[in-house]
């Protein structure tokens, strides 16, 4: 069984990689926000589209980690790296296809999302530049996947931080024309994004070439197996997206204060998800390696340790949020209506956190075991039988935020039952 220090080492590496892009986006928004409201709105919409595209393709990191970790655990590092080579080919191919579709259709997409023609035009211009970075973003995802699989901890951090640091500097210089740089305005943000993502992608790609000893020929059998796993992960991710978009749409119908309160608590939930996801990724790495080595007792021990650590973290956060119900929301707003509305989803969040601790940890365990089809089915079941019905019933019967967040809690409880049963059954060990 793996030491607790290993969990925190792998989780810390994953957390930096997960949290760095949102932190950069906050800087980007702050820099562009000084140009004006139109530019800020355009950036928000354009980055949302790019984020949705990227979110649907996270199978390149999560799926590759699972397969690469198995090979690494079996003592076959070259096969683990080969998984990274094939995932990189998929990422480059999909990325080029996305460019071919999004570049000509960017104005159409933005006009469909934004009624203001000027904002739509600005957003389309930003997207048309930034979309050329998508193949490199996907190359970096694949790189993170196989490097997690072979338990490389520091290198992915340096690669991600190097690219985003250069993006941050270029964003400040190009948007406002500082230090002799041309003042490009909103498009300066897009060029900064493209250069930074390009640097990160090239770093991951260069290391892959060195590790694979230039054995880069496509292996269609491996790619087909990866794409089967990708199908299940994409469906699972799409279920999450549909649920949360539906929740936001329904919350908006209850009034400004209600939707603001919903988004405030939801942003906190997403931040907590990053913390828990970092432990889940560590579980995925270690369980996958143990199963690859045929060490079933170690895999079960790692699953138990991951769950205890995750529940300990989520339980501690639940206590902090329960105690801080009157103080923490005031960090974000002093609006009395929003503060009053926040209390309802806040208590649902507190109740949900210990449940989430178990769900995230066991999700990581089952991903490490390659049990992706089961996770897909469990997530779709929770979405279709729990979250979505409660969201829309809350609109029909005017249940407000209580109905929406009861749906999210029911979603988590459904997934809890599914993953606990699966892990206890032992079927994931084969």
From TrEMBL:
Transmembrane segments: 7-27, 39-63, 84-106, 126-146, 158-179, 191-210, 233-254, 274-296, 308-332, 344-366, 373-393, 399-421
Membrane disposition: Multi-pass membrane protein
Keywords: Membrane, Transmembrane, Transmembrane helix
Protein name: MATE family efflux transporter
Pfam family, one: MatE
Organism, scientific name: Gordonia caeni
InterPro entries referenced in this protein's UniProt entry, alphabetically: DinF-like, MATE_fam
Family named by the database record: Belongs to the multi antimicrobial extrusion (MATE) (TC 2.A.66.1) family.
Primary location recorded for the protein, binned into one broad class: membrane
Location(s), subcellular: Membrane
